[in-house]
Amino acid sequence: MKTASKVSNWFLWWLLYSVAGWVYEIIVVSIQEGHLVSRGFLYGPLCPIYGTAALLAIALLYKRVNNPVPLFVVGVTLATALEYTVSVVLERLFHQRWWDYSDFRFNIEGRVCLLASMIFGVMMILLIKVVHPRIEALTERIAVKTRVVLASVLAGLVALDFCLTIIHLLATR
Q1: Strand partners, 107
Q2: 140-169, pLDDT tens digit by residue?
């Protein structure tokens, strides 16, 4: 049950940070556009790139790096590399762009920009130093069996969302 507990923790964290990224995206883009804008790759309220970046940061940095300067630098590097790579992959697979920083100064092909990278660096510091220690403690308060069942059900729903999204995107490209 130990492995199932760890896997369920990591999945629940990914899900939580993906939802948080979706909320962040809606707020930022809606303010930029002046009206409510739904964001994300999936139908559900998830931006998987945020969950993935958070898990990578947790795996690489959590309880290993305490100094905010290296946290910031690694956060900027990690988030920028992930954002650029995901942009290229999504565009090649589905012939569509989910974001475009072309109007921002210091951008690379509109896929990444300095401002977003700096924000992600600050977010990494907050994640590692403030947010995740609390999330980890809260997660551990949930009974192991409950966590495993919850993660399993939610994983099924996310898998269904991924399948439906990909089927739709491939049919419309």
Answers
A1: 113
A2: 999 999 999 999 999 999 999 999 999 998
